[in-house]
């Protein structure tokens, strides 16, 4: 009896409602706005690296999976603005819990999380992303590792909500988008639910003002 | 010290409603701090005079208008002070806002970020928001004010801690403020870098990231450092420090404020010399016959050599030099191996560049803190600023701040010359003679001359002991001049000696018996024979040779195996040609070292050992203070601790020490060594400032750590004196160690008395100097060519080629210009050296630096003659 009743439910539902699954991976559903995927290290629009090797991300990381070492910027060919740059940068994805605290801690918005989560590695070496692997390419886009499965513009959005709550931002973004422009993107638009003053131009601008964007903050 | 304080009356002050007893005249900020009330500050430092520059410490005091700074306000009876009222808060807020107006806030890239007093104080006491939107002042980002220190003037808050340190503490007033208003900046004088031996201290005490150390720049952030307390063993002062590592690499050494030893300061060689531990030149694997080998192969090869030499020629055919660079435990293990197992007394931790062990171990000893209230300090040693830098600071402070007369027996100008009150003007080699004159004048005889009379008068007018700082006055003289000075002065009732031997743990090595004629714990071979035979199995039959004798015996083919434990005679022995001859002749060299050196290059067996911060244990400083050193990073390569090498060798020689850990050695050492009687491992572990030997005499001085025996430091205020906490009340002897009594009984049963030097010296005659020759005084320089400097990238550039200083009269007589190169010839050899005319050098004498890379002065010195005379010719 029970069997017939059970199948009855199935039969009744068949063809009744819209299909909710998609033929993944050929087709992908839109990702939630606050999804936390793997990181990228951003660059300013002029190509300079944003990371200054300050280790704040490593210090705040609850999983202790970030390893950073700073270095003296070569004066004639600086890697990042200022005295110091991120000389070594590694994230161990066997440990990262994608909390985005590193993004929140970063004073230069160098580290952000994309919505890319489809990667599967077979050894530790691949799981530890080095600086070169995390750094965006010359087009400003994430570099695709052989063991990652994503395509197209899936890397477009990164950590807007975290950047808004970070030390130099405000959660509702009222009045001012306080993040700096990025190579290949310019000043990224806020996400849904965040507002922006109408006089802020979101078109690509040069990033000089933003280089020392953290100077203006007064929470010391 | 406390007795004096107790005699004074106290005043009662009220701070934030709390009633506090204090000594009149004490500073309000200090009184508050000692009673748990923290008044924010930037410029005030406990070890320096207050200046009231930064205004951060403003408080309210009833009856005084406005906000007086607590750091310049002495407490007085019935004073009522408030530190947390709304108006004080508003004042603090205002001061911080003002300080931040021009502050760049580059915290993320600032080496101070994360441990920055300005950050912390602003968070705790400061405004929430900045109202300042205008352009900040700009200076060129860091400029090098010396080879080791960088200055970022944008970050400076003009607290004058650095300039006051340079002036007041170091006596090198090479930095000062220039310009006015918001252009005020700290600067060194043009063309004159801040080349102080103590420059690293200003980095530590700067309350912001304005002064940073080049070697540490961007190496780590405070939150990734692990810290442990230890002692610097670069020289024999053993300044307390906090060594910090990140990812198993040492990145920083901070000075810890130990009242009896270093009062918070370090010299730059000690502070930055940690780099040599990670040098790429470290030998990481054992070698046999120049080829890499396994540990068992190396140990077997070494034992084969030792056994065959012993069987064929007896234990006396084996000699050991060294053992002064490790821990007490290593020194003890080596003493037991050489004297108890191999059966040789040809053992010496000194390299012929110190003074006889009898004098060091057998004289009445002073402590460093005795300098502060001495009747007088008599200098009979090399240049303390070059050899024992932080001891130099203590002597300078005693002379300058505490008014202790400084009596000088030196033959050449030195770092303390300008603070000397009575310069007795001894010629090279004649310190003994002048000391005899001084001693007999103090003893009541008619003074030989007016300076001695003046010195005698000022000593006579003061209470306390006469502290004689006794070290090797010159490497170009035999130690007999110092020994006879010690004999003459030691006969006086009030005299105490502070040893100025400089090498690392040399005092620990001597206390462990690494000297001919001695056994561990300050006993002579003869008086300790029974006791140590029962503990060790056997001891050598008769007294052996010191380093000079060993080298001579090697050269004569009487010694067949020479064991070098961290010793490099070619570099350090004053007479290079003798050292060379010895090493060329001796059959087998067995080396225990961390580096390949000219002396061990052709060693038959090379066994790599660990270095400072890779090995834990205890060390003994020049006053006999036993303190703990910590292991912070793991051993490099396959290196082993020296003590383990000794105990492995002993086992292979058929004598199992059964010592597996450092603690077990400390335990055995304190059980068998008379001077250590009563010092259990537990006592040493828990004693905050260490334990002074002989322990039984100093029980009452022990201060226990409050937090137990752990040396891990949780510090947050590296800019303030870092203190290991402890109960300031000395404990009762009975609390220290219940076995103390028992141990001393054992010692008496064996009739073991501590060695006392009989002050018998052989008569000596100083050869006449002929009128054309110059009698040369040779002293060490801080940045010599030794291993620590050579293998530390930040220090190696500081080494200077030695120059020879002569009086301008002699320069004129010789017809050479200051700065010209000359040829100097002694009976031993000749060298080419730059000559400079200098003030303070007596005509007929010369002063030359010893470069520990085996060139220069050591080619002129003949170890068998008592003074070195040279002739100088121009090269033109
Ligand atoms: S990513 Fe940001 S927080 Fe991390 S080291 Fe670089 S600049 Fe600092
Ligand atoms: S000195 Fe302190 S407040 Fe100033 S930049 Fe450095 S860390 Fe920040
Ligand atoms: S450099 Fe540092 S210690 Fe010197 S005055 Fe400036 S803030 Fe003070
Ligand atoms: S004085 Fe000696 S012990 Fe002190 S820091 Fe300098 S080298 Fe180290
Ligand atoms: S601490 Fe008192 S004025 Fe600076």
What percentage of the residues of chain B does DSSP assign to strands (E)? 15-25%
State Rg of chain B. 28 Å
| Percentage of residues in strands of chain A | 5-15%
What would CATH call the architecture of the domain at 287-354 and 507-679 in chain B? 3-Layer(aba) Sandwich
| Major pleated sheet of chain B | 7 strands, mixed
What is the subunit arrangement here? heterodimer
Helicity level of chain A: 10-25%
**Most strands sheet of chain A:** 3 strands, antiparallel
Described by the principal axes of the CA atoms, the overall outline of chain B is globular
- Per DSSP, the total helix count of chain A is 7
Please describe the structure with a list of short key phrases separated by commas or semicolons.
A: 220 residues; alpha+beta; Alpha-Beta Plaits; two-stranded antiparallel ribbon; 7 helices; B: 876 residues; alpha/beta; Ubiquitin-like (UB roll); Rossmann fold; Dimethylsulfoxide Reductase, domain 2; 6-stranded mixed beta barrel; 28 helices; disordered N terminus; binds FE2/S2 (inorganic) cluster
Question: What is shown here, in short?
Answer:
The complex is a heterodimer of chains A (220) and B (876). Chain A has 220 residues and is α+β, with helices and mostly antiparallel strands.
Question: Can you offer a commentary on this structure?
Answer:
The complex is a heterodimer of chains A (220) and B (876). Chain A has 220 residues and is an alpha+beta fold. Chain A has seven helices and five strands; from the N terminus they run αβαββαβαβααα. The radius of gyration of chain A is 21 Å and the shape is elongated. The C terminus of chain A is likely disordered. With 876 residues, chain B is an alpha/beta fold. Among the domains of chain B are: 83 residues, Roll (Ubiquitin-like (UB roll)), CATH 3.10.20.740; 241 residues, Rossmann fold (3-Layer(aba) Sandwich); 144 residues, Dimethylsulfoxide Reductase, domain 2 (3-Layer(aba) Sandwich); 101 residues, Barwin-like endoglucanases. Chain B is built from 28 helices and 36 strands. In chain B, a hairpin with an 8-residue loop joins β10 and β11. The N terminus of chain B is likely disordered. At the A-B interface, α2 and β2 of A face α4 of B. Bound molecules: iron/sulfur cluster (4 copies) and FE2/S2 (inorganic) cluster (FES).
